[in-house]
Amino acid sequence: MQLVIAEKPSVATDLAKVLPGKFTQQEGYWEGSDHLITWAVGHLLQLAEPEDYDPELKVWQLSSLPIIPDELAGGFKRRPRSGQTKQLRLIKKLANRKDVTTLVNACDAAREGELIFREIEEFVDSGKPVMRRWLQSMTAKSIEKAFGELRPGSDYSGLSDAAYSRSEADWLIGMNATRGITKRLKGRRERGVWSAGRVQTPTLALLVHKELSVLAHVPIPYWKVQAVFEA
Predict the structure, then answer these.
(1) How many angstroms separate the CA atoms of 218 and 122, rounded?
(2) pTM of the full predicted structure?
(3) According to the 3-state scheme, what is the secondary structure of 20-88?
(4) pLDDT tens digits along 16-40
(5) Whose CB among 8, 30, 156, 206 lies 3.0–4.6 Å from 16's, allowing a Cys bridge?
């Protein structure tokens, strides 16, 4: 029996229509003779907050920066997103069923899809082999072909590492920069939280620089040349 984990309910339904065997819909998953098909709803887990590592970090202080989970607790922690605990418990229960021998990563064929599955795999901690379904199209023919060509999950370790690196880099930059900038600006009697991030801050800088360039534009008279040519 294979436990297939899709990225969203609609994909799980499409898989149940194509994979061999008659499927019956249960609460949170589809059950067939050779496959169980369940789903995430995007990311079911998220990186823990600083105070989850150390309660004292709930207070924003410049002296506590930088906050680096690898130094605090030996690595990044993840916790269930709000409202997703029920689905996570179901997936863990299914993954640890005695008749389930293999987990199949049927999340989107991309970096984030890989991360969504790897987070779930780490959470369920079943120790069972993982196979990867790589699928770019949801036609019945494509689904059948993809499940006929399953590859070991280890073949995508590089993609997994890239996904974890992106996620953790966002956390490191966002948490530390946001706290640092906010505390500095509050020293100037500024109010509110000043958010900073790996993507949003340079993107905002590009927009600001362009806007300043437009505002600083000085109109200069110019001539349009018009001519008539005959050959």
Answers:
(1) 58
(2) 0.85
(3) CCCCEEECCEEECCCEEEEECCCCCEEECCHHHHCHHHHCCCHHHCCCCHHHHHCCCCEEECCCCHHHH
(4) 999 998 999 999 999 999 999 999 9
(5) 30
